Amino acid sequence: MERKFIIDHLLRPHWKALSVALVVVIAEGLADLFDTWPIKEISAD
Fold first, then answer.
1. How many Å apart are CA 13 and CA 7, to the nearest integer?
2. What is the spatial distance between Cα 43 and Cα 45, in angstroms, rounded to a whole number?
3. Which long-range contacts (CB under 8 A, 24 or more apart) does 26-31 make?
4. pTM for the full model?
5. What pLDDT, in 10s, does the model give residues 11-38?
């Protein structure tokens, strides 16, 4: 009776929350990246 530790069994029930968390982390990283640039250089006046 050998029982393997498979992370898939732990993560599968929480895939929706993990997907939302990944999107939030990516969005925050992009927001931090664009935060350092002045708005004057981005807008075409």
1. 11
2. 6
3. none
4. 0.60
5. 888 999 999 999 999 999 988 887 766 6
